Amino acid sequence: MLAEFEEKQYEHYMNFELLCKHNILNLFPPGQHLEHYLGFDVALYSCNHKFWKYFKDLWRWYNYYYYRIFNKFPYIKPEDVRFFEELLGKYLNYIPKIKFNLFIQYKRPEYLTSNRSKEWIYWKKPYYRYHIINHQQQLLKNLALNIDRHSALVIYASPAFHTQKQLWENVQRKTIIDNSNYCKVTDLSGHMKYTYINGGKYGIALSEPEKIENLNFEKSIGNFKEESRYENNIYTVINLANQVENSIEKSSYSEYYKYYLMILKNKFFWEFRYKYRIFYSFIKLSLFEQITGVRIFYGF
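Request: output the structure for the sequence above.
Response:
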């Protein structure tokens, strides 16, 4: 049976906990797509009060321009784009140094309890399973290979619980992170399914069985703090947007990405894409998230 809750529910509360849990480095989503319950406004729940100075204006302007761009308003004034570029520049200079990037693909698992289940032989007890979607895996693998391993982590995250009751218990206890299973995208190359029983030490990928060591999520994030190759925040965002764009253009998502870029080419600000590079980078990151469903976080 599939988990009782939707993938978006798990994703929402996982994001909330990532932003607020004190024993994890500060994380912030740079440009989530604008869903009414998940997206850029999730950042307003951040426990880091330093961000609040810019969030109110940043969210208001982001919402305004996103709506105008993607709903084909007839024009965008150059002074508007310039204002947003300056606002984003101030924001990036104000926040702490961005030390790494985290890309998460959330998965809704099946919970299998029958000894006739295909993978029961490996666990001999109830277990979780999710399918690896080929075009999704290829995109994430491209991403992992395009980005410096010292500055980015590309992973699948899936809950090690399956009922609505368990979801709300973990939400209340703030233990969703602890009770989730994490696997590096690159470890699942060539496989069709991934199975696990908890957030423990290993999982098993198939079709050809392979034991996969589970990622220690909090330890991995801590390691990035030590290995960071930080330059500056503006360079980091522009470089990240270019790497993300390169990854999606090599994937089956490229036609959708190019379609939205064609819409942007008809807009007034297109001719300023080199002049207003921060603004354009945020647009590219937002497009990536909207099209692929992959969540991006900055780590400080």
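The longest helix spans residues 52-70.
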